[in-house]
Design goal:
The protein has 105 residues and is an all-alpha fold. It has one domain. The protein contains four helices and no strands. The longest helix is centred in the middle third of the chain and has 24 residues.
Length: 105
Amino acid sequence: MVLLAVALLWRSLRKAEDSKAGHTIQRGSLQKLIGTFLAILLYVPAFPRLGFIVATVPLMVFLFKFVGEMGWKISFAGGILISLSLYFIFKVWLQVQFPIGLWGI
């Protein structure tokens, strides 16, 4: 996924250079892209150590708040709701094994 993200970024930057219209990635979009990339890089090692729910809630809150530009209440509610929903779908319904994490969650 990381390689695909880098390839898409490279492709979009290259198209912007080649384009006569001068379309470029706007600063806010680039900051969101880099922030998302760094958040996922932090999520990957946190997932096996902290467990699914404890690692996923902060990631979702970050994505809602800083990438989606939602308010804090919506970000926390959405982060918790999506994390618990995904946990139910994968762990309970599909019976996918997740790392237990520090707190056994």
